[in-house]
Structure to design on (797 residues):
């Protein structure tokens, strides 16, 4: 009898399984474990993690480490993925021409038109002029309300402090008020200005419409054309101010840039045509040798960023070559340059994932190190996609022709095996990391860890000390009471307990962004990968870290079911879920005499 | 079985008295109650950071009002402990949210479903609290009452504060405790009812 150990070192986890071979050559699986990979994949640091995993597995199997007679380490696929994102449009305002934001508590509603005037300079004698009064932090709300009440020709107010409701509550005649305008000193006097505050639950209608602005400020057709970016950036704002100052968009139409794909066919493609066109070009190029971006353009910079992140990971000296690229159209809230109240505008953005292939990872060195430490015969063997398909075959209900989709962090790998045992595989750029990047930028989150948490766990809102409302509308009660620091917050439900989302984002938006990012990346990329294999699969088994996700397998099952294929999360050996496919495959390949 | 008639009568009387003295919880769901300590508004009427008690109260009220909520002010006599004051305010509050504030300026945001020694936000370093902080405390309490996602208030933390203010803090706390009376009922002062915010979609 012989005891075998199989080790699969991944980017994030190291998986081990133990099996025994009896004298008749029959294999029986004993145990399997998964630990975090120590150090970068393919480096000597991995040994610590492998030893920890082996230790755990031997305890589970009730044997000792020195009973193991043979360790097999997987020849890891030398694929490294990176992701980057760049906004393609930009809004710049000049001369305080525009104000539009979502103060938490604006007051009043309706539209008005008048000339700006500082509250200190209001004429004591009533005149026919309509005024929009500008109130800096030097005037408090009591004083401001008193002065406004003395002037019947004030039709709107702009406040520096967060006091709109306080002023509004003290007014005899109600007017729209906009507050939290940080750079109020930049507003000039005597400027023709339109103001709008939206009714509760709505956003501004007049000032987000170019013709609305034209109506209020009496603009010419040329001026209306120029004001369009302002109207666009006010869409969705709860309150807005537009001032008639000489205005022109200082931002030259930005050069988005193009990429050159060198492959079976050389193709240049302009990024401004969007992700769909890029995907077609990538597909048409066939086997790609390298992709470069136009220097000093958004795209060029973005590809450099992605390349740099991969260079760090791989520890290369020189520039690695990009073998695949996956782009997604997205958007990002970007601060408007020159804005007075920290306004942001939703700008068009594009996110890309790129992939490089490394040389052969130094797995032999790891094997030798392990052998030295444990005294156990260790070999490096088996190509990752082949091992993964072999392992995936142990899923109950799986049959030929069988494809696997390995949903990882940096890349999505696909492989297909037919009845003859022939395996064909591809690696595609774009996976979990790209999803994290999109969540972080679309929600405007400060920390990548927050985005990672949102990606991994369902969200909920803590509604009282004793219950939370889950994102699907269900209520969950807690007998012990909830930690008060979560009160009123949006949280994600991690296995270790709740994690608070520090940024104030509505739960509906969090869920929508999360689901769209996952579908945009994984569904599109999975279809792309299966198509590239160019063999009709009947069964598609999902393995890898992202297959453990609580909703990605569902999205993929739905998408492939519509195409007439069986697709679902694997259940390796009927017990392991989507984990341990490669390690299981290593043991099986041994049994098969490979 | 022997009954101590006198004891039963005493207990009954105290319980009845307590019941009578217990102000009932407000029915206004928009209300946040501000509870002030037994000595609030007396003895110089300033916090340890030299802010006048009336200004502090005005800022907290303004914070609540800016969020479109209502406030009441009560004075708690049964204890000088900020947690007890805050919890009492929360128990009386229509929204279940209360703010407790001691004469020296220490403040707490409390919620009626919590244990006394628990809290939602505590601002223990009164010498570092400014009027802007008190406005924020009012705003945050109102946001909790509305069920909004709230960002806790950033305050300064100075490890030397305790040493620098220990004597003054102790004196102010002693003064507050002297005014405390376990049997004295909580007193209602101001109740500002619904400000005429948008009704039926009209301005």
């Amino acid at each position: 009898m012989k005891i075998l150990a199989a080790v699969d070192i991944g980017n994030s986890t190291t998986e081990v399984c133990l099996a025994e071979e009896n004298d008749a050559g029959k294999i029986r699986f004993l145990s399997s474990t998964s630990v975090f990979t120590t150090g970068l994949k393919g480096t000597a640091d991995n040994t610590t993690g492998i030893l920890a995993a082996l230790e755990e597995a031997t305890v589970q199997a009730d044997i000792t480490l020195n009973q193991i007679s043979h360790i097999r380490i997987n020849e890891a696929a030398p694929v490294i993925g990176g992701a980057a994102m760049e906004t393609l449009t930009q809004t710049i305002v000049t001369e305080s021409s525009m104000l539009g934001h979502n103060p938490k508590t604006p007051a009043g509603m309706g539209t008005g038109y008048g000339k700006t005037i500082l509250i200190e300079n209001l004429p004591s004698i009533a005149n026919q002029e309509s005024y929009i009064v500008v109130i800096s932090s030097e005037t408090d709300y009591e004083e401001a309300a008193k002065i406004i009440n003395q002037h019947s020709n004030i039709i709107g107010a702009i406040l520096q402090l967060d006091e709109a409701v306080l002023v509004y509550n003290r007014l005899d005649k109600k007017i729209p008020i906009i507050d939290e305008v940080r750079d109020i000193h930049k507003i000039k006097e005597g400027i023709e200005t339109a103001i709008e505050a939206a009714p509760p639950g709505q956003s501004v209608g007049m000032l987000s419409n170019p013709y609305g602005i034209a109506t209020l400020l009496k603009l010419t057709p040329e001026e209306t054309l120029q004001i369009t970016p302002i109207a666009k950036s006010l869409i969705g704002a709860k309150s807005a101010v537009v001032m008639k100052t000489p205005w022109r968009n200082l931002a030259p139409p930005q050069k988005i840039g193009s990429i050159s794909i060198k492959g079976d066919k050389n193709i240049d493609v302009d990024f401004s045509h969007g992700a769909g066109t890029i995907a077609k070009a990538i597909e048409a190029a066939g086997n790609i040798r390298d992709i470069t971006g136009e220097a000093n353009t958004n795209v060029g910079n973005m590809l450099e960023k992605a390349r740099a992140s991969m260079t760090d990971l791989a520890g290369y000296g020189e520039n690695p070559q990009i073998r695949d690229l996956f782009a997604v159209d997205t958007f990002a809230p970007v601060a408007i340059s020159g804005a007075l109240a920290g306004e942001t505008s939703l700008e068009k953005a594009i996110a890309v994932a790129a992939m490089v292939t490394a040389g052969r990872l130094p797995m032999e060195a790891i094997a030798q190190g392990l052998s030295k430490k444990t005294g156990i015969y260790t070999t490096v063997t088996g190509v990752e996609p082949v091992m993964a398909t072999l392992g995936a075959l142990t899923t109950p209900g799986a049959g030929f022709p069988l494809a696997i989709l390995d949903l990882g962090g940096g890349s999505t790998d696909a492989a297909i095996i037919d009845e003859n045992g022939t395996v064909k595989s591809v690696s595609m750029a774009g996976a979990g990391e790209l999803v994290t990047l999109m969540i972080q930028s679309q929600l405007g989150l400060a920390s990548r860890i927050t985005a990672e948490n949102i990606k991994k766990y369902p969200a909920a809102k803590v509604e009282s000390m004793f219950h939370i409302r889950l994102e699907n509308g269900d209520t969950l009660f807690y007998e012990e009471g909830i930690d008060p620091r979560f009160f009123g917050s949006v949280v994600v439900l991690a296995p270790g307990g709740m994690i608070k989302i520090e940024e104030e984002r509505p739960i509906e938006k969090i869920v929508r962004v999360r689901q769209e990012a996952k579908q945009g990346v994984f569904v599109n990329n999975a279809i792309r990968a299966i198509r590239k294999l160019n063999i009709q699969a009947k069964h598609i088994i999902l393995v890898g870290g992202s297959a453990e996700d609580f909703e990605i397998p569902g999205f993929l099952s739905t998408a492939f079911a519509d195409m007439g294929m069986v697709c679902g999360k694997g259940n390796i050996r009927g017990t392991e879920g989507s984990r341990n496919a490669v390690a299981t495959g290593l043991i099986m390949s041994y049994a098969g005499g490979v | 079985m022997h009954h101590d008639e006198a004891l039963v009568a005493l207990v009954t009387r105290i319980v009845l008295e307590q019941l009578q003295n217990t102000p009932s919880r407000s029915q206004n769901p928009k209300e946040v109650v501000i509870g002030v300590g037994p000595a609030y508004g007396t003895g110089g009427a300033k916090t340890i950071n030299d802010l006048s008690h009336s200004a502090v109260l005005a800022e907290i009220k303004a914070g609540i009002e800016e969020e479109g909520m209502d406030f009441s002010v009560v004075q708690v006599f049964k204890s000088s402990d900020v947690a007890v004051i805050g919890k009492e305010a929360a128990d009386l509050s229509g929204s279940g949210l209360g703010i407790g504030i001691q004469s020296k300026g220490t403040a707490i945001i409390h919620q009626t479903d919590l244990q006394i020694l628990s809290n939602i936000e505590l601002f223990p370093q009164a010498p570092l609290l400014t009027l802007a902080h008190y406005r924020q405390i009012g705003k945050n309490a109102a946001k909790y009452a509305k069920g909004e996602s709230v960002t806790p208030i950033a305050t300064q933390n100075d490890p030397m504060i305790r040493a620098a203010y220990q004597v003054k803090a102790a004196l102010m706390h002693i003064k507050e405790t002297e005014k405390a009376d376990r049997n004295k009922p909580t007193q209602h002062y101001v109740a500002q009812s619904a400000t005429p915010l948008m009704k039926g979609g009209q301005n």
